[in-house]
Design brief:
This protein is an all-alpha fold. It contains 5 helices and no strands. The longest helix is centred in the middle third of the chain and has 34 residues. The N and C termini lie far apart (79 Å).
Length: 137
């Protein structure tokens, strides 16, 4: 039998997921459904999907709730740090310089659009050429 370290990483992750959801193991044994079906659902839905809530035990649910609360706190902290960094950055900007750069970018985009428009228009001056030029000796 293969060890956990020899398994494919996704299979090892699914195995640890099943160990954290003992009711899933019971469901598979009772229903006779195959592992493949649940593995595919796990791969598609991810382990945080509400579908898996019925297979969790109470301690697993409490652990996940505390993890969710911790992640929400860290996300709030990350957002406030990001906003603070953006505010610091915008205070040091020279608005006239930024405006000039935006105008240059706008002109460059206009030139590119004009070139693309010229390429798309069929030219009346050009006559279609033969793909192969045949010359007589």
């Amino acid at each position: 039998m293969r060890k956990l370290s020899q398994l494919h990483p996704s299979v090892a992750a699914f195995k640890s997921f099943v160990n954290r959801h003992p009711k899933l193991l019971e469901e598979i044994r009772k229903s006779g459904k195959g592992w493949q079906e649940f593995y595919e659902k796990w791969a598609i839905l991810d382990e945080d999907d509400p579908f898996w809530n019925e297979y969790k035990t109470e301690s697993t649910e409490a652990d996940s709730e505390s993890k969710n609360q911790d992640s929400k706190k860290s996300k709030k902290t990350d957002h406030s740090d990001l906003i603070r960094q953006i505010m610091d950055y915008t205070q040091n900007l020279d608005t006239e310089k930024v405006q000039g750069q935006i105008e240059q970018l706008s002109k460059a985009i206009g030139v590119v659009q004009e070139m693309i428009g010229d390429m798309k228009k069929p030219s009346a001056n050009k006559t279609p050429r033969a793909p192969f030029s045949l010359r007589k000796d």
